[in-house]
Amino acid sequence: MKSSRHFSSPFRLVLFDYRESGKTSPFALRLVPALVGIIWVLFSFNVAAKKLYQYQDERGIWHYTDKAPDTELPVTIRQLKVEQRQKVWLIQGGDKRHPTYAIRNDYGGPVQVEVDFVEQENALANPALPHRFIVPPGLSKTLLEISEAQPQAGFRFTVNYRYAIGPPLTDYLPKHAYLPPFAAGESFQITQGFEGEFSHTDPENRYAVDIAMPVGTPIHAARSGVVMDVERDFFEGGVKPAYGQKANRIRILHDDGSMAVYAHLELEKTQVYPGLRVEAGQLIAYSGNTGFTTGPHLHFAVQINSDMALTSVPFVFLSASGVPKNPVAGIWLRGVTATQGGAVGADSMK
Fold first, then answer.
1. In the sheet that 76-79 helps form, which strands lie side by side, from edge to edge?
2. Cβ atoms of residues 144 and 93 within 8 Å
3. Which of 49, 55, 59, 311 would you label with 7, given CA atoms 20 to 30 Å apart?
């Protein structure tokens, strides 16, 4: 089975326009729509599960609620389409003459955020822009201050920001072998490997693999790390282009800054949450058929943040003998335990 190219770099562009003309003009904050083509992708957002519960009580009155009702009456449950929500925010503070900015990061690990001027009239930034910040999870301290270059002259400026998930890595060399991402003793076939012509042609997916398996197959962490992000509430799948951004997935940050992506997971069957530390071989989810897909399978890739762009990197799987195995299309992988395959995380790339 094959999947679409749906792991483009997360990019956020929001423009804030501050205008002040002397003391008599009001200070305005305007949110300007981004006028560039941006593909919003899997790992740029989080979503909240939504169900509609419908039942009729003894008096014939119909009830509708988004929470499971406490009743023994027959209840009809309808899965609703979820809304995507933003995960990295530029938060404005300060006052109209000295606006400040912090950054809120809702991922379970660090993001790299670049802030720059789009317009700048008598505006001075500290630190100077453009500037890149590494932001841990949560709300940061004040990171940026804007002031008038010439006092009392008024100022006008517009800033934008973009971000990439994960810490920036330069000169990254893959050194780690990975457990096949399913239970020990199970065997599944790779149906699309590195540089697969169907969908593994862009930098984010060039070194990805698709592993055919039935819906509901237990998915295990291929390597230890911290959960960065989870999508669990998409329920549709197929070959329509609209499904390209509707695959459930988990992203796990490893100790060396690389990240594993597990995609097309089953609805509401993820077993982890952002910020949780997981160990190699731990159950994290169940496979599905969500998103752009020709059939049930797991999409697995290892990515890094390379100069503000998510880029896939080559990797190998461990075998029962501990010998690294290249993930070539057509081969069958057999699940192993961390003990069988040797110490996952050791320098095992050959």
1. 62-65, 51-56, 76-79
2. no
3. 49
Strand locations in 232-289 (E): 237-238, 248-253, 259-265, 277-278, 283-286
Q: Phi, psi at residue 105, to the nearest 5°?
A: -120, 115
Q: Which two tokens stand for residue 69?
A: 């009702």
pLDDT one-digit tens code per residue, 146-171? 999 998 888 899 999 999 999 999 98
Task: With a cut of 50, say whether residue 41 has pLDDT above it.
Answer: no
Reported CATH class of domain 177-341: mainly beta
Domain boundaries, given as residue ranges, for the chain:
15-44+88-165, 49-79, 177-341
| Residue environment code for 304-334, b if the CB has 16+ CB neighbours within 10 A, otherwise e | bbbebebbbbebbbbbeeeebbebeeeeebb
Percent of the chain past pLDDT 70, that is, above it, reads 78
> Do 251 and 276 touch, CB atoms closer than 8 A?
no
* Three-class SS state of 243: helix
Amino acid at 91: I
- Cβ–Cβ under 8 Å, residues 134 and 168: yes
Query: Between β-strands 291-292 and 237-238, what pairing exists: parallel, antiparallel or unpaired?
Result: parallel
pTM comes to 0.78
Spell out the SS3 assignment of 166-227. Answer: CCECCCCCCCEEECCCECCCCEEEEEECCCCCCCCCCCCCCCEEEEECCCCCEEECCCCEEE
Residue partners of 128: CB distance under 8 A and separation at least 6: none
Distance between CA atoms of 232 and 136, rounded to whole angstroms? Answer: 23
